[in-house]
Structure formats: C-alpha cells, structure tokens
Design a protein that fits this description.
Two copies of one chain form a homodimer.
Chain A lengths: L18 H4 L6 H8 L5 E2 L12 E8 L13 E5 L11 H4 L8 H14 L7 E5 L2 H12 L5 E5 L4 H7 L5 E5 L1 E2 L2 E2 L1 H9 L3 H4 L6 E4 L13 H13 L3 E5 L23 H6 L14 E6 L11 E5 L1 H14 L5 H44 L1 E4 L11 E6 L5 E7 L7 E7 L4 H8 L5 H15 L2 E2 L1 E2 L23 E7 L5 H19 L10
Parallel strand pairs in A: 5-6, 9-10, 10-11
Antiparallel strand pairs in A: 2-3, 4-12, 7-8, 11-12, 13-14, 14-15, 15-16, 16-19, 18-19
C-alpha cells in the first residue's frame, strides 16, 4: 500500500505508540485468508453474506467535468458502475461487500499516486483509507496519546479536534503564531523549558496543525517556517499531525484590482504554486498526514486517507478493523470511478477552479471591509498587530480608530479578526466592574448586538486552546487584554449577502464604538 | 428523533455512563444554529463548503424489487436522486454536505417507524444513526466501560467485539448456554457470587449479546429465556447490548423433507414468526439495540442505527460529533430512496426472501452432514451434548462413534460444532505428552489436515471469551476436556461446494479417527 522504493527508511518512532495501541492483535482470521487462495479450496470459514442477495444492480453518477475537459456548458459526464464479470476491475460487487479494513486496492493506489505527485515524500510511507479527517484524528489520538498528556497546538485551534481529547484529561500546550504560522522559537522555548511538575504532565510529543488555511486563523505556514518547525520536532522527538483539508485551496493575496477570469494552469505549475507540505520535507517518518476529499469533492463522501510511516499505519489498520472497518462502499466506488474519468490531471484542474471560487469569495469579503472601513496594512497600523491589516473608523474629531485587525488568508474559507476594545464605552463600563473576564463579557454583548442586527460571526472563544478549567478567562490565558477575536466565514453567502453583512457589522460598531456613521468610501 | 408518546419513562440509568463520556460537552456552535433560522439573518458563522462546488449532479441506482413488487423476472427499479428545488425532500445536496452528527431527519424517522413496526418498545427511546455495528459497539464501549472492567458475554463470542476492548484491560465474564441461549441461572450465579478481589475487578454492569443466530454458535435466545435474562439484568442493574444483525434471518428448523418454493407471507405474519427482541420487552430503558443494514441490504453501506434510552443516545451523539460525524451521504441517500420505493412492507417481503435463501443454504449444509454421517438427535446421542445433534461414524466393528455435535441454527449464517477427541489415536498420543493444551494442539493439526484436503473451517478458538492471558488453555478455561469447536459457514459456497467440502471433512475424519471409510448413506 505504499511506495517504498528509493526512499529513506524512517527512524524508529515505535516508542510513540501508546500502550493500548501496542497491545492490539491482528485478527486471527487473517491467517486463514492466505489459504483461501489455494487452487480448489472450498472455504466454509468466511462469514460474508452472499453477494447475489445485495439489492443494488447498477449505480450511476452524473458528474461535472473538470475545467480542462469542459467542451460545452452544462455538460455532465456519466460514471457507471455495474456488477458481474463484464464490469471489469470496477465491479460494484466488491464495494457492496465487507472490505478488509485496508480499503480497496485501487483506491489505495490512487492515494499513493496522488501523494507522489503532490508531495513526493522523501521517506517510506503507506496510505491507509479512513472515513474522514474527524475519524482520522480520533484514531491518531487513540494511537499516540495517553490520558493527561499535553498536545502542542496553535493558540487558536480547531474546536472539534480538542473536543475529542478534552475528556481524556489532555490539555493543549499552545504556541503563538505570526503571519507565517506558529513560531518555531516559541515552540522550542515551550519544549526546552517544559517543567513537568509545574505543568502537571510530561513534555508533549505530538504537534497538531492545520498548516494551510488554518481554521480559524486562515494562516498558512510558510515554507521557511515549516523547515524551522520540523527541525524543532526532530530535536525534541515530536510527531507532527498535518491535518490539511485546505491544501489545494491556496490562493494569492487580496488585491483591489479587477479579478481575472478563471484560467487553469498546467498541473505542474499549479502544484509548484502551493506551499510544500510537512510531509514533503519529512526525512524521518514523523509526519502523519490526514488527507480528505471533504473540501475538494464533497463532505458527505466521508472518505480520506492517512499518509504515514508504516509503523503507524500498521497500528492504525488494527484499530480500523475493530472501530470502523472500510469507508462506505459507494463513496469508494464513486471516487475511483471519478478519478478514472477525470484522471489526476483533471482533478488538479478541478482543484484550481475550487481555488479560484474560494479566492473570489475571500475577495468579496475583503472588498466589503475596504468599502466599510479604512483598511491599513499592519506597518501603518495605529495599534501593534501581527494580523496583517487593520480596519479603522474615524471618530467625530476625524481621528482614525482601529476597530479590528485581520488576516488576509491565503487559503481556506475564513478571515480571522481581532477586535480592539480600548476606549469603547460599554467595555470601559464592564472593565470598571470587578468581572472575572470583561473581554469575554463584552464579546458576548457584541456578538448579540450583531445577531440582533441580523449578522452572525463565530466568537473567537470557541477556538481557544484548552489549557484546563483554570485557564479560561482572558487574563488566565495570558491573552492580550482589551481585545477578543471573531471568525468571518466567506464559504457560503453570496456577494450581496457578504457586503450587506459587513455593512451590518459596521452599523453595530458605529454604535458601540460611538464613532460617526459616515460613508468612508466617499472620503 | 424518537417516539416518546404513550411510552414508559426509563428508570435512571445515568450512573452507567463512564467518566470520559460524562465529561463531553456539546459543541458551542450548536448555540449559533438556532439563530441561523431568523428571518433575514446573514450568517458568516458557518464553515460549510459551498454546495455548488460539489461535482456530483445526479445519482441513480438500479435495484432489485422486493418479491411482493416483482412483475417480470429481471426487472429492476430505478432510484433517482437529483439536486435543486425540483428534487423535493430527497434533494441530493443535503447528503453531499456535512451533517449534524444526528443523521438525516427522514432516515431517523424511517428508523423509528421500523422500530415501532418490528419491536414496539414499551419504553421511551431514540434512534441515532451510526456507520455500522462495528463502530456502534466501539461507541457503546466508549460510553459505558472503564479500563479493567468485566463484560458479560456468551462463552463463545464474536471476536472483533472483544478485540476492541482487550487493549483496555477489559475481560470477559462468560456465561454458558444451551440450545435456548445463555442460562439465566448461570448469569445470576456469576453476578450474585461475584468476588471483586478474586476476580480483580468490579461486578460487570454490561451484557453483550448477539441474541439471534449468534456468531459463532448460531443460537437464538428463546422468548422464555429472554424474560429470565432480562429479570436478572434488572435485579443486578445490567445494561443489555443487543447486537442483532441476523434478526430477520430467522428460519424454521431443518427437516429432510423436500423444500417448498418461496412464498412471501403477509408482513404481520412474518413479524409474528420472529422471536421477540430484548428491546420489545425492555420496560426500563436498559437495552441498547444495535441495528444494521449490513446483512439485509449490503455491508458496504456502512449504515445502521442505535435504538436506546435517550440518556444514552444523547451521549452517543456527543461522541459521534467528534469521532465519526454522520454516516456517508450516498449510503443515507440510497437507503431513503430505496425505502421510498419499496416501503416498509416491501422491505419486510425482501427480508423473507433473504430468510428463505439462508435457510436453503443452511439446509444444504445439514443435508450434507446427513449424507456423510449418521446424525442422531441429542437425546439419542452416545455422548452428552447440549448441541442438538451428533454426527457419528461407525468404526470397523460397526459401533457408532460420535465425531461432532452441532447446532441446527434457526438464524444467521453459521453451524457451530463440537468435535470429540476421545480415543482418536493422534490425540491420545498428544495427550500422553505433557503439553499444556493437547486439545488445542490436536485442533490445530485437524485444521491443517482439512486445509491440506482443501476445505477450510474456522477454528473455535477464535471465539473463546477472553478471560485474560492466564485463562487461554482448554484446562485453564475450565472447558470440556478432549473436545474442541469449529464453525461452518454456509453463506457463500454453492450447494455442490458445500457437499464436496463436507465430503472432504469426512475423508480427514475417517483417516484421523481411524474408522472405516464406507458409505454410510448406503446402510
């Protein structure tokens, strides 16, 4: 299931596998399977239902072609999956029957081909199917973590990923980031100065990253920063989990110029434009990459794959056998049939169109910011910010007041913003009361005021790295005072909705920040 | 998601939920969802990819009709799933997008309708979708078990179910069975006399059963026995997990008479012929039923549902959100479309055909036994057996020698058999050596001799309840000496293959048991 030729052998990382995972045994039934292939053998040993009794005969899917194969507008391609000997190697029957846990051989080969084409990992690896990155992460935590461990994450991290491990008593060891991603120096500091006693747990050995278009921050870790982070992980023997659903949704920075119509580049040029993955620079086998088709085909597919050191995939296969078995058969069949039709080149052209669509949506949101606020680059910001840009309003005296800073995301579906509460009357009032967390209290009021104005953002508090119940408030987390974060998603609304939504945000801010409600675009 | 009217309220069973499961919090994003429905609201809060960018436009499945709807041979019905407003309530888009974890509302309703129709549970319950019983059991163990617990199981149990929990240090507390299922008296004894110190763990609070057509034993627990077992579970506060993939594959006992051609009965008559489930007699909410479409539609679907006390399904939903999310969308869409076409009555007719097909296959195997051996009912057996029937060979002096006893299964896909080694020369030889487990050693040789004769059975040792590393040998387990078990599966081979396979088994037995190889059918 992998590509083992001419690759570096991984270093020994078996000590990362936890006690429970180490004690899993392969099913003894596997021993029988090799006998089943003998000439003339009659097996009364299997337990599979009879495939003639599955009620489905044919499956057909009408699909969009990738841009490179488009001939006429609205034309669809038809994928047909039939049963029986005439169906060849795409015989639907195999996808209706139980699988072995390892997934369909052709799909694993496809995963391997894609991995070689996109990442060309220097180290030996295997691909193993899984039913989506949510489940994949759950299996990785089951593989590597013990109760009460620490996991290194970004300061703002994907909430479902930590909701999984919080009940295990696991805590986050957060590392702060700038526009290029988490700081390798901070990571190194955290690890080097780890005090087991003060922390109440062992030095972390696992780094979890959504390294491209991070949810929520939108940050994509730069190539240079990746090298620095990888070196720290080698020094302190960390395993890197690269959860990367947005890898192919990388796009250039926002510019106010007229957008060019979509034009697919040659596949190799497209691939060269993408930041190199951690997997592509992993010379030791310490990167576990979680690949998903959820953001590139569709989420309901519930299909993806691990790319990892065989010492990890072998254990992940053991847990797959008892926790999930193969991903759903129709999902596997659809995906293989689609790739047979599209080819990998067609898929890479499809991805470029996706990239273009999400870039367009990002542009809608940022141009709405420019319409409603005066936007300054960080260098010219009246407040220090690592966030790229600052959206300002002018107060009655004409003075620029920074309202929020934001990241211009180069990937993904989100714009992360930091709101500044300094001098905001209601916040000042809350701060004068002896509340435990005036920032959180005002954030909540601000969110409610926006909801009353019929616009919903996601509160930044959902994404705080979980450091335990004693480190929840702004102060206890050591976060910047007089500020809080919100996430804007641009994936689903229309251009008009996005502009209207930002206008409503401004209405609320005008009122709460007590600045003059005048048309900035007219200045 | 359930049917709460006119039902008994469950007793409080929340103390069964383990510490980790209790500490799971619902995603804070859920709080936002209710705001999304407001008139005129624009949400920049969601994180869903844009559905116009999913490449699939239509899905079509050609399906077999249920026997009740058959008009012409070979006719298929076409299920069509399209996208957009004209697609109505089966709009494919919803199945391509992320779900909420709770599954599609229509499918949950279907699960509820099926549950009412088949089981009419007396107590309040909810249905929650899952991606197959393997995953469902993994979630139930995650809900109820702590490390180093004990779980009550049948003496011979489904190996993947225990492979899941063995790494947690969990052990089986096995209960022996007769032809009507596990003995309620033995269950009571085990629980009443539980010695925490001697056992090294707390009294079990969980009973796991494949209660119809058990894998491997083929036993279906009788209605009378179920009532006795349920009463013991109430007395000792046990939760019953009813893993029941073979429920609809119940059929009458074997008879040597000519088989009647298939004829579907009216649905209510069919349902009345089935043994009542534990769920149907659960007046307290202590049954968690695992339902699967794997054996009734097809395994690759990876779709089933829990039927359980809402106090359990609420926690199971929490873990679904972080461990698997919704089952695969195409599987959900296919299943709803199929039921819309077939109706529940059509499904019940389909099941009767399945039942007939597996009964026919069971008959092929048992008639092959009758062809190759002299088969006596247990009452006339030369050896005491709880197994129903004994297959005998005559030795050179013409004396009947019992070779193996077997269950005539009334459900499922397997015949469970116990082989008697008394007086078998090679076994006597092995017994005279001071081996730790001569039974296991001879079993292995017997299996290899059959494999060399080109017939594969599954060794019974795969199904031994796991009581720890010190209780593996025949003696340490307290199992009957001079015997061992094998499982025959009749699900996949043809009639000719089954007859040939049993003939090969006999060839091996003739040789190893040193009986005359003469044609018994001719006597």
């Amino acid at each position: 299931m992998g590509s083992l030729d001419r690759k570096l052998a991984p270093v020994d990382l078996s000590h990362h596998i936890n006690l429970k995972s180490r004690s899993r045994h392969p099913s003894p039934l596997k021993d029988i399977i090799k006998f089943m292939g003998y000439d003339g053998m009659i097996s009364l040993a299997g337990g599979l239902p009879h495939p003639s009794l599955f009620p489905i005969e044919n499956a057909q899917f009408d699909c969009l072609p990738p841009p490179s194969q488009k001939t006429r507008d609205g034309e669809v391609v038809n994928l047909h999956l039939g049963r029986g000997p005439s169906a060849g190697d795409l015989d639907l029957t195999q996808f209706l029957q139980y699988g072995s846990g390892a997934g369909n051989r052709q799909l694993v080969q496809l995963a391997t081909d894609l991995t070689e084409r996109v990442h060309a990992p220097p180290c030996q690896y295997e691909c193993l199917l899984h039913p989506g990155n949510t489940n994949a992460w759950s299996k990785v935590v089951g593989l590597l973590c013990e109760d009460n461990d620490f996991v290194v994450v970004e300061e703002f991290t994907y909430p479902s990923a930590q909701a999984l491990w919080i009940p295990m008593g696991i805590k986050a060891a957060p590392v702060s980031a700038d526009a290029e991603g988490i700081l390798a120096t901070s990571l190194r500091d955290t690890l080097e100065n780890w005090d087991e006693k003060a922390r109440g747990g062992k030095r972390p050995k696992l780094l979890y990253l959504v390294s491209v278009g991070s949810n929520p921050t939108g940050i994509t870790i730069s190539a240079r920063r990746r090298k620095e982070i990888y070196a720290v992980c080698v020094e302190f023997d960390l395993v890197i989990v690269e959860d990367d659903p947005y890898y192919f949704l990388q796009y250039p920075r926002y510019s106010q110029e007229e957008q060019q119509p979509f034009q697919a580049e040659p596949p190799e040029q497209f691939l060269k434009s993408l930041v190199p993955s951690f997997l592509s620079m992993d010379t030791q086998g310490r990167v576990i990459r979680l690949e998903s088709f959820s953001k590139t085909l569709f989420p309901g597919l519930r299909l993806g794959y691990f790319v990892a050191n065989p010492v990890f995939t072998e254990r992940l296969l053991r847990v797959t056998e008892v926790e999930t078995q193969d991903p759903a058969g129709l999902s596997q069949a659809f995906t293989i049939a689609l790739f047979k039709q599209w080819g990998i080149d067609g898929y890479l052209a499809w991805l470029q169109n996706l990239q273009y669509q999400y870039k367009t949506r990002r542009n809608w949101l940022l141009s709405a910011f420019h319409d409603q606020f005066e936007v300054l680059p960080a260098a010219k910001s009246p407040v220090p910010t690592a966030q790229g840009y600052v959206a300002c309003l002018r107060d009655k005296s004409g003075k620029l007041r920074p309202v929020f800073s934001f990241v211009d995301p180069e990937a993904g579906m989100f714009v992360w913003s930091k709101f500044y509460f300094d001098g905001v009357p209601r916040f000042v009032e809350l701060e004068s009361q002896s509340l435990e967390d005036p920032e959180q209290a005002f954030s909540q009021e601000l969110w409610e005021a926006m909801a009353a104005e019929l616009v919903l953002l996601t509160p930044g508090s959902y994404y705080h790295a979980w450091q335990g119940p004693d480190k929840v408030s702004t102060k206890a987390r050591g976060a910047d005072p007089r500020s809080a974060y919100f996430r804007f998603s641009f994936a689903t609304p229309t251009k008009e909705q996005i502009h209207e939504a930002v206008k409503r945000v401004r209405t609320v801010l005008d009122r709460l920040w007590e600045v003059a409600a005048r048309d900035i675009t007219a200045t």
